[in-house]
Amino acid sequence: MGFYFNSHTLASFFLLLAFPAFTYGWGIVGHQIICQITQDRLSESAAAAVKELLPAYAKNDLSTLCSWADTIKFRYHWSSELHYIDTPDDLCTYNYNRDCKDEDGVKGRCVSGAITNYTNQLLTYGSSVDESQYNLTEALLFLSHLMGDIHQPLHVGFTSDRGGNTIPVRWFRRKSELHKVWDKDIIETTEDRFYDDVVEEFVDALKQNITGEWSDQVVKWEKCSNNKVACPDVYASESIQTACNWAYKDVENNTVLEDDYFLSRLPIVNLRLAEGGVRLAGTLNRIFK
Ligand code: ADE
Ligand code: ZN
Ligand code: ZN
């Protein structure tokens, strides 16, 4: 397919230049890792539903489309506020009724509300009620992406710094922002330093921990109390606590982040990627039971 410049793509291009930090959730690789962990853990019926809902060009690989929701933010403008939650500065708590709203105050328009919404849409799969009312392919892609985002600690961050987007830092020699450090930089440095830039090796290492060292906890990660199908508020609360205890901790404007920060935070990123993957699978398995 050719690539055409019209006024819209040109405008998007300059917007990208102007606001580089506001564009992505976990980077493409973070979402890819989460969805690769997920797809291995699907039940037979969930795997069949996912296969049916994915477009043919995805070749039954969910991970190829787990960043789709980020790429359509400019087309589906209404969706850009569904990727995060802004909580009150310095409180380090999340409360659905207080915090899950968009910038106009519309309730439920946050990453937790969106996960519940797309879960409910997907629950109509296979019922005669409504295959036409919703686009269940889009619902699957939103759910798969947003389950990742809600596990990025700074996607449940403070309001005034937009989840660390407005905190400039240095990542080793380069300029970055705290939010981007958690979306991408820690993951990229890990790939580069420990896995020869081969993402599959990173994923394999996480999968080994999931079936090995973490296997006891994994049973708890997967569960969702009170017979609920999705538990996004639990994950959002964990994220803001993790943001306070690890992401924001010891960071100010222009702090230089190097090995001390990288090596102490990497286990947290590993854990959140694994939890995101395991919980997306658990949720899809409950949806498509
Ligand atoms: N925009 C405003 N707050 C944000 C957050 N926590 N994460 C990503 N984008 C945001
Ligand atoms: Zn996102
Ligand atoms: Zn992000």
UniProtKB/TrEMBL annotation:
Enzyme class, first EC level, given as a word: hydrolase
Entry EC number(s): 3.1.30.1
Record keywords, A-Z: Disulfide bond, Glycoprotein, Hydrolase, Metal-binding, Signal
Signal peptide bounds: 1-25
Single Gene Ontology MF annotation: RNA endonuclease activity
Zinc-finger keyword on record: no
Entry protein name: Aspergillus nuclease S1
